[in-house]
Write a structure and sequence with these properties.
Blueprint: H1 2-19, E1 24-33, E2 42-48, E3 58-60, E4 62-64, E5 67-69, E6 72-76, E7 80-84, E8 91-95, E9 102-107, E10 112-116, E11 121-127, E12 134-140, E13 145-147, E14 153-158, E15 161-169, E16 175-181, E17 186-187, E18 191-194
Length: about 220
């Protein structure tokens, strides 16, 4: 449900272009090789080589059942992301990713904290209490963003011009292609992402230390404090 909400929000931007007769439909397919899990988002975005407009917006990443939802969120630079705590326990959202690491601190159930992302980067987000909680906020210097469907199909509505189009997955090197968009629809050749070389690496807490052993106990939050 959260993923659909995000896609609708991006589509509203595209619809404005389409209504003004300024956008052409650009479609394609991303094929993944070497993938061991279907629960991995594939993002496609286009950066104008003639200068990108700035269209920041508000988004949400919920904390529920000790997970982030959505686990991967792509947003235009300047956007604000809320991190509501929908669990009945405390969470502490942080990221050590450069160029703008952040720590939202400890906050209780029903509370919300937010972060405005002013620098494009891939921000890996964690909880300082629960090591199993991981998310990625992909901050991009463009509002032209889509998430490929389960079949790999994607669609972008782009004003005429030259673009650098990127297919991205957290488990593969991105694939980049320059395209020219005119007044008519464009169907792109297949894009291939190779995830066979992905190796998952455990992360540390916000102090750069290993999580204590009790953090991996699934029953820890059910015990009386």
């Amino acid at each position: 449900m959260k993923k659909r909400t995000w896609i609708v929000g991006i589509c509203l931007v595209w619809t404005c272009f389409a209504a003004e007769g300024l956008a052409a439909e650009v479609t394609g397919n991303v094929r993944i090789t070497g993938r061991s899990s279907s629960d991995v988002a594939t993002i496609v975005f286009a950066e104008s080589l003639d200068g990108n407009p700035t269209r920041p917006a508000h988004f949400k990443v919920s904390q529920r059942n000790k997970t982030f939802a959505p686990r991967v969120l792509a947003v235009p630079v300047g956007s604000t992301v809320e991190f509501p705590n929908d669990d009945l326990i405390f969470h502490n959202v942080f990221s050590l990713s450069r160029p703008a690491p952040f720590d939202l601190g400890l906050y209780r159930a029903g509370s919300t904290k937010s972060r405005t992302f002013t620098a494009p980067a891939t921000y890996r987000v964690f909880c300082n209490i629960h090591p199993q909680m991981t998310a990625i906020v992909l901050v991009l210097p463009t509002p032209y963003i889509a998430e490929a469907g389960t079949s790999g199909d994607f669609r972008l509505d782009l004003p005429p011009g030259r673009y650098r189009l990127t297919a991205w997955s957290e488990r593969a090197q991105p694939v980049v292609k320059e395209i020219q968009v005119g007044a008519v629809a464009v169907r792109l050749p297949e894009l291939v992402l190779d995830e066979s070389g992905f190796v998952e690496i455990s992360h540390k807490n916000k102090h750069g230390l290993e999580y204590p052993k009790i953090a991996y106990d699934p029953l820890r939050d059910r015990r009386p404090q």
